[in-house]
Amino acid sequence: MSVNLLNAAQFVYHRRPSSFTDFLWTAWLLVPSGIRLKAYQALWRFSVKHGERTSSAMVRRLVPFNIYAKQGCFDTASEALATQYVLENTTIPVPRMLDVIALPSGKGNFLLMTGVNGTEYGPTGVTLDKMAGNQREVFTKTLREWFDQLRCLRPPDDRTISGFMGTGVSSHRIRWPDTVGPFASQDELHTQPFCQPWEPYDDALRAALEKRANTQYKICFTHGDITPHNILVDENLRPCALVDWECAGWMPEYWE
After folding, report:
1. What does the pLDDT look like over 236-251, one tens digit per residue?
2. Which of 11, 111, 235, 243 has the fewest Cβ atoms within 10 angstroms?
3. Is the pTM of this model over 0.90?
4. Name one Pfam family in it (predicted).
């Protein structure tokens, strides 16, 4: 297994200045990346002392702004590009990517993004079976609409299984932070050890394996890490944003 780092320079801020704030940010991005990084890291240190924790030690809200930073991960450049792609090609509410800078240590990138409305669904402690009927209907309908949009995005290749930019697949299900692949076909993916069940297995699992072997699945754009912490909801538990696209890629339709 290996880690395929993307160059931070592959990220380009996509937004035509439509306000004075946009104009200032576009101008700020002309400042050398080393200076920008020092400014961001100073805000990070200030926020550690005076801000609130998030569910991840690698993510921090940079107070007093509604801006979030992420560092110490291996695939933040890929995450930025995938999130930007979703923002521009769907109506799914996601953060707007602002900046990506390579860390001097060579261990990943520093990612800057806007905040989005909502709070993490996980800490609410309200499972689907405990939701009111109308809440559950809205929750499932919204997520279904989001997934349908993702599945309508055409892959670069109808056969290849890969990360968003054609690199290896990042997945907490397999091994993190290492990547696997890319794979030229579903058959190649399914021969990997992580796709093999432990023996002994029953008739139902044997039938499922036979079905998988005889089915050509559609390759879909996949978030890759749908957990309660990555779904943001409003006070009525209506999903209002989907975050953390670091595992996004082109996977078989059953993956998500």
Report:
1. 999 999 999 999 999 9
2. 235
3. no
4. APH
